[in-house]
Amino acid sequence: MPDAMEPRRLRIITMVLAIACGLTVANLYYAQPLLAPIADTFGVSEGTSALVVTVTQLGYAVGLALLLPLGDLLENRALASRLLLLTAAALAGLAFAPSFGTFVALAALVGLTSVVAQILVPLAAHLAPAGQAGQFVGKVMSGLLLGILLARTVASLVAAQFGWQTVYVASAVLMVLVSVALARALPRRVPDEPTAYGTLLRSIVTIAREEPALRRRAATQALMFGAFTSFWTAIAFELTQHHGLSQAGIGVFALVGAAGALAAPIAGRIGDRGHGPLASGVALAVAAGALVLAATTASSLVLLAVAAVALDLAVQGHQVLSQQEIYALRPAARARINTAFMSTIFLAGAICSALSGVLYDAGGWTAVALFAAALPAVAFGIWARATAAVSDESRRAAQAG
Hints:
Growth Hormone, Chain: A
């Protein structure tokens, strides 16, 4: 199908996929800069309000585990567009939730159904011409990453003018529009080797057990995403309490992270040229350094912004490089590979967002930032060990030859 598709149509579909991914995944991040007004509305502490981020990511992790594998079973276009209608209903419910408990439950449902973004990313790899999967995945990931990185800014600015509930009403409308756009623009894609759902789920474990590269990439990106989530969950409290920023000011600060989207297409090209392993190590080192900077220079708003840009560039670039490598492992099982990869990542994100709320209440921003810095440092150790093992294997093969 990719080779027969007109270049112009492929460009349009890529753009639709990028926009759809961005708008859908943004639902996971709107709450981060809104935790303070949400806490005020429901009369809970700031640490407790961080549970909204945690349950949204847990819901997403469950969706990745149970719904994403359906991309290898069901027709992709119908699956994505129908799930988005459920997302729209849950978002509308958030705007009118009568209690914090109801809000948390609906946030979990939003996370569960927003898995559509990860159904669409492997579809880009399926549609890409031979040898260009990294570039096409990178383009779609640019849209997804802009959704992640701009969600906080948009949510802050809209909430400052119209109230936080408006954010969720607007997103509900957008999900309906995206559902219609996907139904009209995407080609039908029925999996080549459909199988029973139970068999499909069991095969995820088998694939993860048989593919060490998948396990390594999932572990390192999970640690990177945990650091990313910890930073952005706690930064709103720091900016409000110690830098005196308003809700709109937090939105402007969050805008600096949008530079991270630039990493996606660049990382895709680097990976296509065979430099993915080295670039991955650089990304891990940059993330750790950025968080050490954030921990030690919290009094400077400018340096916090520099740390945010560097962190986002590193995390998003490493994810694209990781996805490029794992999608090449088993093309017929990309949805299941993505399930194992993304489920691990968002489970780590949920755990780290919960820990960041506790750490901030106990030790403030420095405790959160140092905790976050330790995560990519551990990931760098995993990368270094794997790189050394590959070098040793190549040396032995050369000697044997």
